[in-house]
TrEMBL record:
Catalyzes the first step in hexosamine metabolism, converting fructose-6P into glucosamine-6P using glutamine as a nitrogen source. It comes from the Archaea. Homodimer. Residues 36-175, 209-351 form the SIS domain. Coiled coil: none annotated. It comes from Pyrodictium delaneyi. The lineage of its organism: Archaea, Thermoproteota, Thermoprotei, Desulfurococcales, Pyrodictiaceae. Keywords: Aminotransferase, Cytoplasm, Glutamine amidotransferase, Repeat, Transferase. The active site is at 356 (for fru-6p isomerization activity). This is Glutamine--fructose-6-phosphate aminotransferase [isomerizing].
Amino acid sequence: EKGGYPHYMLKEIMEQPRVLYETYTGLMSSRELEKAAEILASADHIFVTGAGTSYHAGLVFAYFMARIARRPVITFISSEYLAYRSLDHSNSALVAISQSGETIDTLQAVRSFKSSGGRVVAVSNVVGSTIPRESDTTVYTRAGPEIGVAATKTFLTQVLALTSIALALAVHTGSLTKAEYTEAMRELRNASHAASSGIDRSIRLVELLASSLRSKNNIYVLGRGLGVPLAYEAALKIKEVSYIHAEAYPAGESKHGPIALVEEEFPVIFVGVPPEDELLEKLQSNVMEMKARGASTIVIGTSSYRELEGVDFYIDVGNYSEILAPYAVVPPFQLLAYKLAVMLNRDPDKPRNLAKTVTVE
Ligand code: F6R
């Protein structure tokens, strides 16, 4: 049932091109996006929540909502909903992201929001699960069942659904013309190809990278812009399946504290994404400040990042626009986490202390 793969995690990583395509066609042939856009368009304030990987997808959503739909979004981790519980939500909308649709923290956030008058758009992979049932409408990912405890294919399908919601809202409110919307949706159809490219271009290199990282105790993962939520997700994946401590933060934060830990051979992975004309030069100085302390510098990014100097190891995922970059950049990190786990004799499908669905607070 693992389709010939030794672990579900690997099978599910490799399935991404197909399930991205299925999610895309599912979105195009339903009215889910329109319904979500209607709810968001009529709200004065938009919130997004989730736990773990789903929260990271929420951060990608907030990024594209600002960039494409020109709407600021308030992001919070679902177990932190208490901060907003006393607000009047009658003119607000909440986007609640949960692969399983059963995570208790996210469900509590949904209930709290509804009880103060808010409307809820769920994003879920499980039809008929609790969070979709209690929400006003649901946008489904069509990733199929995910057996590995670490979320992989569900993350990128969430990103696809959420990016599509941002685009649908943008055309609904006039931030995008109908033609621009059609063009962007046509581009998103290539999410599947971007994921294949990310996998194909990294599968061998990740093996080398994992053998040089397997003996490390700490790894930093740094990004800017869209690269920040992708870095958070990369670090979560590495730590949960390989048990190597990985920490992600916006690259600009280095000199505000974390660089104090950096010494000879400390591995720092940079996530390189568009818009390169705004980010490349800034990332270059972050690479240099790490290099100056003897760090091992690694870049996983689009082809434009080849120009960076002072990089010890580089995985070029191909050149992709901003809306497509996540699908190419994320699989190498998932594969890296997987390889590290296997090399260290850890079961990537069943990390210790973790459950697939967290139904207790
Ligand atoms: C990480 C992971 C968890 C889940 C989180 C939320 O790989 O799987 O962080 O993302 O428990 O689960 P859902 O999306 O089912 O609410």
